[in-house]
């Protein structure tokens, strides 16, 4: 089958197209998907560079989410039939003509969303739902700050937080990106290149701070994030674009009775992923089906141009998702 391989870690050219990768076989509880499109994620860039090896048992090919048509069923699969159009959260192997997915990590392609665009939903929806709602328990009327508001994650986080009635603040690196966040519903827009996000969020909330912060920057923002939290606030770190090691004054955390949590979706056991996917199907899919929440897709590239998609992602010029099509 056609696929993108990583023979050696490196820059974008390390992504090498092939036409003779063996087609995977679905095991028990898995389905074989003929891929229509695959989402591109920062994690794929890290894997390509050799910093994020696939978990044990996962495909060595990159790609954490796909959309397509079910081509075959493994043993003990219920709820899906051959020919169903699905999108799926997978542990790897999405940059390929065929991939296998646990049946419990598949979702139907929602009404109003094209088969291709559906590939941009599983990773961001599952990440945002699990962290912002299941873990940080964002409530109506609370203030939610998401860093990298124009990222794939950010564009979904804004929309879902607005749906529950939160006030949404974002940081982003340009006026154009902030305008895209405003169009998705963001209320408080902070250009982190020109403004101090702690000062801005503090002023915008009358000194109270943010109840929940979703952070992709990590070390560089840790102390400022905790300063920007409200009493009983929850900071969830899901990315480390600004480094891994930082110092924190625990007294600030203690006096606010605040929490710092860090998570990784890929590392969760299959049963936890299945629980998250089921919650997404129950709570988020109806919003997508009625058009209240939409995938934001910047651009699609043919699979064989995966290296160009990675270059665009690493330039950080994009807004929303980049997809590879077959
Ligand atoms: N833990 C998990 O389970 C999980 C799951 C999915 C994603 N993630 C993480 O979430 C992050 C976003 O993923 P994505 O796929 O949505 O990526 P993405 O679309 O490429 O977005 C990343 C954005 O972050 C901003 N950025 C980049 N470097 C930065 C820096 N040093 N400081 C501040 N902002 C920076 C950029 O926007 P600006 O121009 O505004 O700077 C960029 O658009 C990644 O770190 C990814 O690894 C984690």
Can you offer a commentary on this structure?
It is a single chain. The chain is of the alpha/beta class. It folds into two domains: 3-121 and 268-325, Medium-chain alcohol dehydrogenases, catalytic domain (Quinone Oxidoreductase, Chain A, domain 1, Alpha-Beta Complex); 125-262, 3-Layer(aba) Sandwich (Rossmann fold), CATH 3.40.50. Helices cover 29% and strands 25% of the residues. The protein is built from ten helices and 15 strands. It has helices spanning 42-48, 122-135, 152-163, 175-183, 197-204, 222-228, 250-256, 270-283, 285-289, 306-315; strands spanning 3-5, 16-18, 30-40, 65-73, 85-89, 98-102, 106-108, 143-146, 167-172, 188-191, 210-215, 229-237, 259-262, 297-302, 321-325. Strands 3, 4, 5, 6, 7, 14 and 15 form a seven-stranded mixed β-sheet that branches. A six-stranded parallel β-sheet has the order 10-9-8-11-12-13, with helices on both faces. The longest helix is centred in the middle third of the chain and has 14 residues, at 122-135. The N and C termini lie close together (11 Å). The mean pLDDT is 97. It binds NADP nicotinamide-adenine-dinucleotide phosphate.
